[in-house]
């Protein structure tokens, strides 16, 4: 699931969210993001209201972290007390994509049964899968088919 792949933990144990609330909201945000990306990709008007509603829940502040005695890094810390706050950083990422990305490089994954899109940051700009795992599966399927054909 994309939430796990993107490094989202399960709900923090200190929260008392109703059952399924995070999943419902995450699916809602996924739909909003999908619609916005599809609209942007096909140069249609992007529906902004729902995405901006999500962004309205974003509460964050910066902290300074020491990498060493002379190196520092600015880090953003997000408040995640509600389901909306927990997902708001994802909405922020979607917003950054919509405002900065080259949408010729936003493509559908060619993995069988994969519904994801990815942003191709490779130098050659010829990436075809959202994850190397799909390339591996594809190669295995091709090898299996080749073996099956030879044994016929
Ligand atoms: Zn994929």
UniProtKB/TrEMBL annotation:
Xref: PANTHER family: BLL6575 PROTEIN
Taxonomic source organism: Alloacidobacterium dinghuense
Lineage: superkingdom: Bacteria
Protein name: CGNR zinc finger domain-containing protein
Residue ranges the record marks as coiled coil: none
Alphabetized Pfam families for the sequence: zf-CGNR
Residue stretches making up the Zinc finger CGNR domain: 106-147
InterPro entries xrefs: ABATE (IPR010852), ABATE_dom_sf (IPR023286), Znf_CGNR (IPR021005)
